[in-house]
What we know:
This protein is 43% helix and 15% strand. It is globular and about 55 Å long. It has helices at 5-16, 43-54, 72-85, 96-106, 122-130, 143-155, 179-188, 242-251, 253-256, 263-278, 280-301, 318-330, 360-377, and strands at 29-30, 89-93, 113-117, 134-138, 162-167, 192-196, 221-226, 236-240, 310-316, 333-334, 336-338, 348-353. The chain starts with a helix and ends with a helix. It has 13 helices and 12 strands. The longest helix has 22 residues, at 280-301. The chain has 2 domains: 44-278, Type I PLP-dependent aspartate aminotransferase-like (Major domain) (Aspartate Aminotransferase, domain 2), CATH 3.40.640; 280-377, Aspartate Aminotransferase, domain 1 (Alpha-Beta Complex). By secondary structure, the protein is an alpha/beta fold. α2 (43-54) packs across α10, α4 runs parallel beside α5 (122-130) and α11 (280-301) packs parallel to α13.
Amino acid sequence: MSEFPRHQASLEALRKRGRYRALAPRAGHDFASNDYLGLASGDLLKAAAIEAIARGVPVGAGGSRLLRGNDSEHELLEREAAEFFGTEAALFMGGGFNANQAIFSSLPQQGDLVLHDALIHASAHDGMRLGRAENRSFAHNDVAEAAAQITAWRSVGGTGRVWIAVEAIYSMDGDIAPIAELAALAQAEDAVLVVDEAHATGLFGDQGRGLAHEIASRTNVISLHTCGKALGVSGALICGAEVLIETLINRARGFIFATAPSPLNAALVRAALKDLASNPARRAQAWERVDLAHAEAKRLCGLEGFSSQILPVIIGEDPLCMEVASALQGLGYDIRGVRPPTVPRGTARLRISVTGRLEHAVVTEMFENLARELEVLA
């Protein structure tokens, strides 16, 4: 008998519901990762790593940034990132999850309101739970409801600042936030707009600077650019007004008490940002594959309405979704099923992710096989 019977029973319950999770190795053509530009395993970052090590960049930081862990590579990256993304300052964090926790636990103050899209990332929810501000949600991408929520909050005595939290591209639906309308709402309400650009950085906006790039210089806008997706490395850059970045340095527990990210990692992110600015062909190739995937999904599977490199194929029931994913994996395509609680109940889906390194023929063949699997379901 297990020494932890309650844990064992919980795991068994997950198995029965088709929600048990287990680690699986990489295998087959990549339709699962967030390596949208193909940088993660490409020659550019390998060469950058060799060059950085040769000039003495440390592999480890050795401590937190506020002790001895602060390295010149961190500071160079932050200056270059602020210039590239068009903000007063930037702060390099160990990952996007940690960065969102830092933002929402440290910046909104007691008496403020965090108003978030209903589909905001789990990391934002964790940050809000650690923070002192009230939080409310609004219906996904519904700016009118967001405005109504602010009015309702003010009507019952809310007097603090409103922080509007959204994702530029939603990671499980692949749809795009109405950034211009949200920015207008933030201006009208003297609110701060927090845009998680995780799945937009590298692909969207001028030189891949994200969907909020045109407004990023405003002091009431914070943009979060994760480095482990299209940039091919790891970490995250919080970009915004200098006073907010300084507040994070002084108040964010996930920054103060964490060992600093690897200086070598910072050097690699610098190389990725330089490539974005100087190599438009890489983005063009990625978009060519995305456009092809949209066309083949419609032609072969009757699926349409996609907005980005993320193509969700809703299956519905959890076990059935995993069966379809397993069938496609058996044919050589690394496609993963996503189940609740990551997505709403009854919407288990295949999350098809298109990267720039996929060959044309592979994209077409995958959708041909997907079409056959969907026919069986019908």
